[in-house]
Amino acid sequence: QFQKPEDAVKYRQAAFTVMAAHFGRIGAMVQGKAPFDAKVAQENAALVVTLSKLPWAGFTPDTEKVKSRTKPEAWMEMGKVRAGADKMMKAVADLDAAARTGNLDAIKKTFGDAAATCKACHDAYRE
Ligand code: ASC
User: Fold this and answer.
1) Are the C-beta atoms of 13 and 68 separated by less than 8 Å?
2) Residue list, ligand 1 pocket, CB within 6 Å
3) Among 32, 47, 112, 114, which has the minimal tally of Cβ within 10 Å of its Cβ?
């Protein structure tokens, strides 16, 4: 899938960046920094679900020595990283389900749960 390890790193970083942009648009509404619009929440949640599946392919073993913010621990505990990724993908699927209902309280709850899965992995495995 990738010509060089550097391409895999770029790919996963790009996927995380785009995912964060769309997750953040829901976050702005959840935090009252943007007016709540159920359609916007729905569109962004659907994108986050799709994007959440992408970064993991970029964590190929040959990228361990490429400079990035990934801590050495991630390579020693790749099973845990994958388990965290599965949790995150499940959490954003729950956010998507809430966004489809248009219920802001449900969106707030599932957004918070999803953000916690992002943070867990960042705290453990990101420099
Ligand atoms: C975001 C974003 C993250 C997570 C994290 C949650 O919107 O860009 O990395 O949420 O901050 O704690």
Assistant:
1) yes
2) 20, 23-24, 27, 115, 118-119
3) 32
